[in-house]
Amino acid sequence: MLDRARDAFMAHPRSVNESYFEHMGAALRYAGTFAFCAFAAFVHAFLPFLFEKTASTIVKKMVANMNARMDAPQGQIQPGAQAAE
Q1: Residue ranges of the domains in the chain?
Q2: pLDDT, tens only, 35-78
């Protein structure tokens, strides 16, 4: 029973060739980047001359980074390497 729960818990991190903590770190970095994008888009909504391309540029880089992380064997992408940084 416990092994089955652990396997279900770790299925996704393993599917992207990461340990639990590597996956947690990447997810938290993405969350922080998304929070910044939300802030930039919010400010841009009221002051359109600010952050004109910031959120869209960061999101495009994040998509490229996510795709690279999923396609690369473990250890090939540096931990903490995020295109949006």
Answers
A1: 2-71
A2: 999 999 999 999 999 999 999 999 999 999 888 877 766 545 44
